[in-house]
Structure formats: structure tokens, C-alpha cells
Design brief:
By secondary structure, the protein is mostly helical. The protein has 13 helices and no strands. InterPro entries: HATC_C_dom, RNaseH-like_sf, ZnF_BED_domain_contain.
């Protein structure tokens, strides 16, 4: 059961990125149980039950990676939101390596899953981009930016696009992602990968579970004891904030 303990610790952290570990953890646990099947003799039913429960609880993930089919009743499977795929792919500790190791399908299907994850990321990267208005030469002359006694002698230069497309950024990211710490990586590459950075900060700040939020309320209950009933709301808020954000 050690892999389950490790997955629980990863997804219930407070001061680390947790949502990116959901998909790799679930698929790794399923792979772990799959390997246990031929090895166990007396606990085979337990292993099968754990695997069935895992696939039922996280059905949306298995559907998105083509390890399961859509439900026939039309209901949305749990954990089917693409944010889990995007978060796993945009964490350099995982990147797309979990597809190669723990998605138990054929190589052709793996390629389709990899392409699907890329498209989901690129789609949001394009949507979050804000195009920079470009002033053409005629507008510059109208605005007086080309004025001068010998302005006509100068060669007119077209404005160069120094940025890169989201597709090129994603390709570069997949090339340099090699197990780095996710927070340090994006802090160092926010200007190199601006489009992906916008997507990363949107998806990676989502908590994987409600455990950190529940701990905040627990701290509040510990601080606001009966003998502190006269404590003001502002003071309680500040004390809880200090407690939960202490280094």
C-alpha cells in the first residue's frame, strides 16, 4: 500500500503544486495494481477491487487517456476536466512521460493521447494570448513619428515579431522539461515561454483536494477557543493567515 500512501501525500500538500500529480498518480497506481495481479495468490480479489474502485472514482482520467470508453447513460465521468491533463503536462517533473510509462494502450493510441494533450494546451494558450497592436508605416507618418529633415533618406524597417508561437514554445518546453521543480522552472522561464506561462499559472494553482482548505478551518477552530470568544473577526483572520502562511 506504499504507493497509495505516497499518492495521498502528494495530492494533499499545502505549499506545493498538487494538481499536476493527480493524473500521474492515478495512472501509476493502476499500473502498480496491474503488475500485482499475476504476483499475488491470496489477495487477488483485493487487488481487483482496488483497481475497479480506482477506475470508477477517476473514470474521467481513464476516458481522456483512452483506457476506458464513455459512459452510455450520458453522465459526465468524475475527473474528466482537461485541467488535470494540462496540469500534469505543464509540470516539468512529469511533462508527457506519464503517457509513455503508465498509459496502458498501444503505441498508436499513445500518440493520439499525446497529440490530444498538446492540442488542449495550445487551445488555451491561443485563447489567453493578447495580440499586440502593430502600427504600420502609414500610421507612423500620420502620427509624426517619421518626421525629420532627412527622414526620407532612412530605410524603412518593418517591425519584427520577437516572440514565438505557442506551438514553438510547447515544443521547446517539452525539450527542456527534465524533472525540474515546477515553481522554480516557471519562475525562470516565464519570459522565455510567455504563452505557456499564462496557462501554467491558471491550472497549477488549483488544489488537487480539499484537505488544505479543511486544515485552514481546523487552525481557525484551534485559535478561536471559548476563552477567546471576544476576539474580533479581523484579528482571527490575521492570526489564521499568519499560521497558514508561516515558513
Amino acid at each position: 500500500m506504499n504507493p497509495f500512501v505516497e499518492a495521498t501525500d502528494l495530492t494533499q500538500g499545502e505549499k506545493i503544486v498538487t494538481i499536476s500529480s493527480v493524473v500521474p498518480s492515478v495512472l501509476s497506481l493502476n499500473h502498480h495494481l496491474e503488475k500485482l495481479k499475476p504476483q499475488v495468490r491470496f489477495l487477488s480479489s483485493l487487488v481487483r477491487s482496488l483497481q475497479v474502485s480506482l477506475k470508477k472514482r477517476f473514470g474521467g482520467i481513464f476516458i481522456n487517456v483512452k483506457m476506458a470508453t464513455l459512459t452510455q447513460d450520458g453522465t459526465t465521468a468524475p475527473f474528466s476536466d482537461p485541467v488535470y491533463l494540462k496540469a500534469a503536462a505543464l509540470d516539468p517533473a512529469f511533462s508527457l512521460m506519464w503517457i509513455d510509462h503508465h498509459v496502458l494502450v498501444s503505441l498508436e493510441v499513445k500518440a493520439e493521447v499525446r497529440q490530444h494533450v498538446k492540442e488542449v494546451i495550445l487551445r488555451e494558450a491561443v485563447e489567453t494570448e493578447q495580440p499586440t497592436p502593430c502600427v504600420d508605416e502609414e500610421e507612423q507618418e500620420i502620427l509624426g513619428q517619421g518626421e525629420g529633415l532627412f527622414a526620407a533618406y532612412h530605410k524603412k524597417k518593418k517591425k519584427k515579431d520577437v516572440g514565438t508561437t505557442p506551438a514553438l514554445q510547447l515544443s521547446h518546453y517539452l525539450h527542456i522539461a527534465d524533472g525540474q521543480n515546477v515553481l522554480l522552472f516557471w519562475a525562470m522561464n516565464m519570459k522565455v515561454l510567455p504563452s505557456l506561462f499564462k496557462v501554467a499559472i491558471r491550472v497549477l494553482d488549483v488544489p488537487a483536494s480539499r484537505a488544505p482548505v479543511e486544515r485552514v478551518f481546523s487552525h481557525g477552530g484551534i485559535i478561536l477557543r471559548p476563552h477567546r470568544a471576544q476576539m474580533s473577526d479581523r484579528l482571527l483572520t490575521n492570526l489564521v493567515f499568519c499560521k497558514c502562511n508561516a515558513l
